[in-house]
Amino acid sequence: MMCAVCKCRVTQELSATGPVFVVLLSGLPHKNKAALRQSENPSAKLLKCTSRKEFFFPTSDAPLADYSCTAFVIRSPPAADRNEMAVLKVTFTKTKRDKLAQVLWILNWVSVVTGMILLSLGLFLKVEIQQRRELMSDREVHSVPNMLIAVGLIACGINFLGGKICYDCVDTAKFLRWKLLMLPYIICTFFFTFLLLVGALMCYCMRNELEESLFVGLRDAMRYYKDTDTPGRCFLKRTVDMLQIQFQCCGNDGFQDWFYVQWIGNRYLDMSSAEVTDRLRSNVEGKYLMDSVPFSCCNPSSPRPCIQQQVTNNPAHFNYDYQEEELNLWMRGCRQALLEYYTHIMQSIGLTVLIIWLFELSVLTGVRYLQTAMENVLRQGDPDSESDGWLLENSFAETARYNFNIIKNLGKCYQVDDDPNIDVPSTAQHESDKVPPKQIPVPS
Amino acid sequence: MALLKIKFTFQSRVRLAQGLWLLSWLAVIAATLTFSMGVFLKAELHKRSEVMDNTEIHAVPNTLIVVGLASLGINFFAGRICQDALDTTRFPRWKSFLQPYFILSLFFTLLMLVAVIMSYAMKGNLEESLKIGLKNGIRFYKDTDIPGRCFQKETIDRLQMDFRCCGNNNYKDWFEVQWISNRFLDFTSKEVKDRIKSNVDGRYLIDGVPFSCCNPESPRPCIQHQLTNNSAHYNYEYQTEELNLFNRGCREALVSYYMGIMNSIGAGVLSVFILQMSVLVSVRYLQTATEALVGQENTEIETEGYLLEKEVKETIKEKMDTILKFLPINQVDAAAGQGSAEVGEKPATPAS
B62: buried, middle or exposed (CB in 10 Å: 19+, 13-18, 0-12)? Predict the structure, then answer.
């Protein structure tokens, strides 16, 4: 290896603490990224390549950006986990990087469209629930569409930013703008995908909440069916009638539910008639109960004109047996009908959200590879060279440990620590006494 | 004396061709819209075909479908023609094609106008058809056990619920038919026997309506039996009760629904017609302006474009002559003319 500026040759040398690699920052592949990272810290120790035969350490006022040929001494890590530390490493040539950036740009825009789809699905669900809010008791049913709307908006924003970033990644100069932002962006997107997954799971879990809400809501709606003169409830009759006609259902669980509520208003009952007073007296609460159902329970497919009065009274109608009559009234309960309807919608939405989640995850993986590849290219200095991309620099355990250390040391100021990767002698003299490095052969 | 002559410079010819290309693509989209509107109307008419007596009204959507498809072809060729018009080497191959093209295009464009007029004019036809169809539907409402009519009840019930209507003209139509089948009548009961005896045809007539006439907006549970008997229900007066049943007759409801669709379609097709005519006029001008260039060396000179080469009357006379020449009448005249010529010659020869 030869330094391009001072033409001094640097070699591997052995010392008491293990092999020492001298690494050039321009042109040659680095062997230990951890050490490189430390070199970007202005207080790290750097060596300048000189013609002297000995190494010594520069003063701290040498600016970082000034060197074009700088070497620094590092301790090599144990050979075992040197190359295999990165998770899922892939090598990228320049054309591959460009193509990856272009593909990711297109995929990000597709993701913006999927974000808008999510938004519209959330809005659709919200409208559907809002339409039948009179039949649902006030519960947490609105959380699912609200979450879908929020997630859709965030997805649009994140992927729009991602598209811009990927568009700029083709040009290394423009990439520098985004360099610092990219890692936080990737972390945010990763947490956002978790949110997507939560959204999908919520869609599937909403069923129980909805069932409770519908049970209470329908029961109350049937109870207030007759109150067409009470403000706030005057359209409940119309709502229930239209519901039963549209969803082809009757009552809460079945048509017998109508036998237990008074669904004819007192204004239309002749209180002087004997029949009415008999019925009112026949039950504790004084309600006018009959074995009849409203007209909206009638099934048009019945071959017979609808029998809605005295439904359980067989002799009241010619040739009629209510246990065998299946087509006369709707057999299904409205709670079950509405539940099936909403479950069907939410299952489709949940499936769509899962697919979008997988898509976002793949786009995120691509962006991570692109980020690491671009950063490596920048470190090597040559924009046309090959570089490696990976998901994680070290193994999972290492990365977790490293991040824990960062969090632990967050409060402390930077100190000279015992990181074995930095060669920190107490004085230059001591260094030359303790570890006599081999001479750097200087071409004469 | 050409009809509506316009001078075209080279620039204006180029611009005409470009404008025509754009216009022809717009017209293609418009033709697709016409086609789809025809299909939609046909589907809607077919949905309720059971309450219509005849299918004459289907002529409107059929015409629209045919015109839409033909317009697609016309405008496609118009686009191709204007692409070739600026190139004098490629333009002559269209020469023999253009005359029949114009005649066909004019025919189909006028057919579009006919479709629009039909959609407004066939209202009476539709009304009649619905009147008879609904009358039969109501009459056969009870025949759910007779094959061929078993679904009349369901059809009429769903129709009344969907269109919020009752009966043919109004709900009283139900009083005049027996809509409860004999299978469900207890003939041993006195009430049934009285009712059947009370009219000439022996029908069980009641002042009641089927449940599908009930209006969900009514504040009161639906009263469908003994409608005209005020004392049968508490606090009820049928003359002032408006919300109990649907007030509209189904014929009126269906007619207004279909006329609404056909009016909007008619307005749309009228604008498509204007677009199509402008495309045809532009093609004609482009054709005549470019034809004047054929044989010329300099393609950038000014030429004249016109709609018809001669005046309208002269053109018609010419066309009629060409057509008449092909008819046998003229051949007989020619033979007779030949004979008279020979006769004319004979007296001449002896003289010479």
Answer: middle
- C-alpha span between A151 and A157 (Å, rounded): 10
Confidence bin at B329 (pLDDT 50/70/90): low
CB-CB contact of B255 with B127 (8 Å): yes
Residue type, A318: F
Nearest CA in chain B to A303: B144
Q: B181: which chain A residues are within 8 Å (Cβ-Cβ)?
A: 303-304
Proportion of chain A in helix, strand, coil states, percent, rounded to 5 = 55, 5, 40
**Probe site for chain A from B214, B218, B227 (most A CB atoms < 10 A):** B214
φ, ψ for residue A72 (rounded to 5)?
-140, 150
pLDDT tens digits for range A99-141: 888 899 999 999 999 999 999 999 999 999 888 888 888 767 7
Q: Do A264 and B222 touch (CB under 8 A)?
A: no
Q: Identify the DSSP state of B234.
A: T
Interchain contact A272–B (C-beta under 8 A): no
pLDDT at A402 over 50: yes
Residue of B nearest to A241 (CA): B216
- Could you tell me which of A30, A31, A10 has the C-alpha nearest to residue A78? A31
Total Cβ atoms within 10 A of residue B213: 26
CA angle B196, B197, B201 (to 5 degrees): 70
Which residues are CB-contacts of B121 (< 8 A; sequence separation ≥ 6)?
Answer: none
Stated as kind and residue range, the H or E segment containing A358 is helix A334-380
In this structure, are residues A333 and A251 in contact, taking their beta carbons and an 8 Å threshold?
Answer: yes
Average pLDDT (B192-210) is 91
Residue type for B287, please?
Answer: Q
| Tokens standing for residue A185 | 């962006």
pLDDT of amino acid A237: 93
ipTM for the whole complex: 0.78
* DSSP 8-class letter at B301: S
Average confidence (pLDDT) over A333-359: 92
- Residues B137-169: tens digit of each pLDDT: 999 999 999 998 889 999 999 999 999 999 999
Q: How confident is the model at residue A292 (pLDDT cuts 50, 70, 90)?
A: very high
